[in-house]
Amino acid sequence: MSLKPPDLPQDAAYTSHWCEENVYLLIQSFSRDSSLSEDWDVFAVFISNHSKTVALWNQKLSEELGCPVIWDYHVLAVLRPRNISTSVQSWVYDFDTRLGIPVTFDSKLKGAT
Fold it and tell me: Which residues are catalytic?
């Protein structure tokens, strides 16, 4: 099965340092598309820890390539195919990454750590 992830909407709102708001608005936009909701489950994924120091690589705010950005938390949108028996991967939408939008979940894990 070939299931292409939806493109980032052209009118997607982005405000630096407001990842949760950016993801909320993106998910809201995706939820208005009935064809998307037929094929995809959409999640907001919060990344955090007790020390509020989440290191992510390949972030636009990094001063140098190869250096992480330390967030107190970070929020991503993840789209997972509804038919999880397929070989189609989940896709990550991160407005703050240099990896591209969207990227496969596996690519995000490899590129962010």
Answer: 19, 74, 94
Q: Is the dihedral of CA 40, 7, 35, 2 positive or negative?
A: negative
Specify the length of the chain in residues: 113
Structural domains in the chain, sorted by start: 19-112 (3.10.620.10)
Average pLDDT score over the chain = 89
pLDDT tens, position by position, 39-66 = 999 999 999 999 999 999 999 999 998 8
Distance CA 41, CA 81 (A): 6
Q: Kindly tell me if the per-residue pLDDT of 112 is higher than 70.
A: no
Q: Tell me whether residue 104 is exposed, middle or buried, using C-beta atoms within 10 angstroms of its C-beta: 0 to 12, 13 to 18, 19 or more.
A: middle
